[in-house]
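Record copied across here:
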Amino acid sequence: MNMNHLWDMTPKEAVQIQKELRKGIQLTPLEKTVRLVGGADVSMDRFATEGFAGFVLLDYPGLHMLDHAVVKSELTFPYIPGLLSFREIPLLMKAWKKLRTKPDVLIVDGVGIAHPRRLGIATHLGLILDIPTIGCAKSVLTGVYDEPDDEPGSVSFMRDKASGEVIGAALRTRSKVKPVFVSPGHLITLDESIEIVRRCLIKHRLPEPTRLAHETMNEYRRGNARL
């Protein structure tokens, strides 16, 4: 699916595109064994005019970082909750071209279908790249859930408040620490998404792919690494 022509638009047009793209989401089981997992992150100030975006590549399940790709680029779409993929994906696409080896599954710092129109950044990116994607967010964009048990690995499902549809899960990654919020993006099921995120946990609240992606973007943003 080629989406490169869709980035110059108004917020109203972006909402309509989300509604159309929703028809293409496939929450189907993985088709191959996962050997490489990627993490994606974008680092910027809320009202900045440019940002850093990129990917890290890890072996799986070993979780050793193998490669990364980062770009610094201009932001052309305004900061609007629910439409952040239109602000961030153009930068991520530039970084994706620089990533020499592509992951089997990509974990994105953000939501998948746990979105008012079911098209968070993980889903949007999965549709564009045509690869399995998982959203792993630090906060809830939409949906209701009960607190999972305090034991690490505990899960409670997130549901749409109006329809009751299961749209993700709250996953406790560390005892006495706020859960993360996992939702499938594209070409993967919720159960598979939860299991992969669980296996990507070491000792932090966040799974290693998105944690390392965030750290890597910030190293470049602080000027400690060169593009």
Observations:
- The first helix runs from residue 11 to 21.
- The CA atoms of residues 15 and 162 lie 20 Å apart.
- Strands lie at 36-43, 50-59, 65-74, 105-108, 133-137, 155-159, 166-171, 180-186.
- The chain has five helices and eight strands.
